[in-house]
């Protein structure tokens, strides 16, 4: 599996729940991006992350959590080079959609797609994470603008006139006014008009322009262009499990587009969320086939009674997910006459038929047994009574023999996760036969949301309406607000059930507020990003020196640690050698030397994953510095954030 098992785990980022189903879509798009990247590197073609992917790279270190599109852009001259070579370079099943080649694609962008059609072939699904849907990367084109505003307006007006003529033909095609040969002729006329419009868009040579713009639709609507110089120099930023190129002065570009781009506005980009749901609906409608999915039956709520002993069982699905169970574990450990068993469950790869396809070595690694040994030892050192705790392998625990009084679970899926599975013996459907109380605990707290937060509401379809929640005797959520959303969703999903049943079953708790660091000396994480270097090369060293001086002068009140971003990560070195450019190395060298001279600790080599930056943010009281993905985690943890303005 190219992206590794852990990539596909359910995850909560910036308070948003990302299920495995969305991770499948991400993985498929990243594979398409890898092919585009390979072609571009081979033929010396520049491209840049754009729109939501650009914002995601800078603000989140990957996809915007509630988005599943991947967007890039190319300057017109680079795009012409790309189109000249891509057909010969693409894998056999890849294709490119544009207005000339794909019916009803009346847009001035290209979409590189991973297949010609939706595919349920077994071998294809095996290579594509059990994901049958078409997945791709949108390529937006930036054209050069005239220096003379009047000349530019004249061009845009002429393009608008051409497109209006084409639109009238397209509307007649869409309404069925043309048929047969007449329809083919009309489509060719519309294509010819689009070509004519594109010729006008591409007519300004690079050397005769200072600005670039995505003309359709933004330039035609009067949106100002961007400085051409922004797209001359590239830097690479972490993006999920790879890197993606962005303009070196990315902070300036995003600030001019969005203002304060660290402010989060959740939404979906004019399509279903997730986007593959639209394909599913069309496929089912056109074929009359209902694809397999978990459905509710009234008998699922029937509860066999059990005689059980004084024993409690915890079934965690990973060390990083353990945190949501830990407070309940500590509480159970405090009950002197209760035996507490911890049985780590491996998350394993499954095929489209639900069969486990992981090797014995992969299963053993996925169990993370030694990590739980360390977790329990650390809790014991912190004063938790672990005398009655038994850590047991999942193949050694016998439910019939033990019949625990309570079982705590984290996986909601049973057999209905599209990529991963726990051992079927530990499915909720089976567990409820051996205990008095099956308790489901979500992976962690999400951000409080309302009915207006469409991505959150749609996302619940992937983790709330699942067997673990249905079969559990108790579901513990973080607040009355989230309880209300669970109840609404389950009443809708479980036809014929009483709202009062779910009101009783879903229990809200108010999470403990972290005590924080109460010492007088506060720990500050000072983030310094490479964009500072590119934007202020002439006085970068002086500016950083002056900021460091403020921290050293106040070292009795604050303890500063520098966070270098992007961090050097050896495992990516061979993947993107361009990332380690001379400018990047000079940036690192300057910051490291200044930190050494001032005696300030520097954090480097941090894995660019959400769990890593979340843990790092948890170690500090406040943040100061560049706009980085870790800023969002400080915000989620309700810690002070100040973005540095190096222009002051």
What report would you give on this structure?
This protein has 22 helices and 25 strands. The radius of gyration is 27 Å and the shape is globular.
Q: Briefly note the structural class of the backbone.
A: alpha/beta
Compute the number of strand runs: 25
| Low-confidence residue ranges | 511-517, 570-576
Sheet of most strands:
7 strands, mixed
What is the mean predicted local confidence, pLDDT? 91
Please give the count of helices: 22
Q: What share of residues is helical?
A: 25-40%
Straight-line distance between termini = 48 Å
Indicate the overall shape. globular
Radius of gyration: 27 Å
Strand percentage, roughly? 15-25%
Labels describing this entry:
38% helix; alpha/beta; globular
List the helices and strands and how they pair.
Layout: E1 11-13, E2 16-18, H1 20-42, E3 48-49, H2 51-59, E4 71-75, H3 76-89, E5 95-97, E6 109-113, H4 122-127, E7 136-144, H5 149-174, H6 180-201, E8 211-213, E9 226-227, E10 234-239, E11 242-247, H7 250-258, H8 276-287, E12 311-315, H9 323-333, E13 339-342, E14 348-349, H10 360-367, H11 369-381, E15 389-391, H12 399-402, E16 406-409, E17 420-421, H13 428-431, E18 437-440, H14 454-459, H15 467-471, E19 474-477, H16 480-493, H17 499-505, E20 506-508, E21 522-529, H18 530-535, H19 540-553, E22 558-565, H20 582-598, E23 601-603, H21 610-618, E24 622-625, H22 629-636, E25 641-643
Parallel strand pairs: 4-7, 12-13, 12-16, 13-15, 16-18, 18-19, 19-20, 21-22, 21-24, 22-23, 24-25
Antiparallel strand pairs: 1-2, 3-4, 5-6, 6-7, 7-8, 8-9, 10-11, 14-17
